[in-house]
């Protein structure tokens, strides 16, 4: 069970590796549960300030849900399929989307179905030139179930998303970048170094400010601008009494590098 997701921590960055390479890192129920448990641990670990999520092996980030497993849930009926498959997958992508520490998907290969939905949900993503994306659920006679019908249109626009959702056609990492699904495409050997570099550039700043930005964007993006501005104001109000804001302001005035505590009052 513990080997389904490999965990490594170095320099305040945790690397989580989906570890079913023989199954193209398919998202079994057990793997999803293990990943959720690790996220719970990381969230309260002050020594970890950013997360890189990638896949084991040379072929796949994740090929999506474990079809053999979830087909048994489907056969058991609607209630079982919704509980075991849909709710679990949506819980994972919602957790990744709302996580208060930066998560960077390092997409090293196939990102089909649920693997693509993870990429849509995380706040940041870098793709290898070897990556390949697809929304192939329609080939199984079903819609996406981990949030793909909702997040992809918000990222790519309704018509471009619907073309991918309704055809099931695969698309390149360059196309994923054009659609806003990934931040950058890099040579395969540069994938993890580029992901760590992005994480380090974030770690220069206050972790409290980073958490507030992630929360404001995630909560505000699907609201009206007026409602989003209220969320933004709420997040600033949380920051006002912190040592990090005082330190950031003093460091700027004194023209020195800040030394953030990263602690809420």
Question: Can you offer a commentary on this structure?
Answer:
With 265 residues, the protein is of the alpha/beta class. The protein is built from eleven helices and ten strands. The protein has helices at residues 29-43, 67-75, 78-98, 114-121, 148-156, 158-167, 173-178, 191-203, 207-220, 225-239, 243-254, and strands at 5-10, 13-18, 50-55, 60-62, 103-107, 110-112, 124-128, 132-134, 170-171, 184-186. The strands form two sheets. Strands 1-2-3-5-7-10 form a six-stranded mixed sheet, with helices on both faces. Helix 4 (114-121) crosses helix 5 and helix 9 packs antiparallel against helix 10 (225-239). The longest helix has 21 residues, at 78-98. It is globular. The model has no long low-confidence stretch (mean pLDDT 97).
What percent strand? 15-25%
* Radius of gyration, in angstroms, nearest whole number: 19 Å
The average pLDDT value, as a whole number, equals: 97
| Morphology call | globular
SS field, number of helical segments: 11
Could you list some keywords that capture this structure?
265 residues; alpha/beta; 4-stranded mixed beta sheet; 11 helices; 10 strands; globular
Task: Tell me the layout of helices and strands.
Blueprint: E1 5-10, E2 13-18, H1 29-43, E3 50-55, E4 60-62, H2 67-75, H3 78-98, E5 103-107, E6 110-112, H4 114-121, E7 124-128, E8 132-134, H5 148-156, H6 158-167, E9 170-171, H7 173-178, E10 184-186, H8 191-203, H9 207-220, H10 225-239, H11 243-254
Parallel strand pairs: 2-3, 3-5, 4-6, 5-7, 6-8, 7-10
Antiparallel strand pairs: 1-2, 8-9
Helix pairs in contact: 1-3, 2-3, 3-4, 4-5, 5-6, 9-10
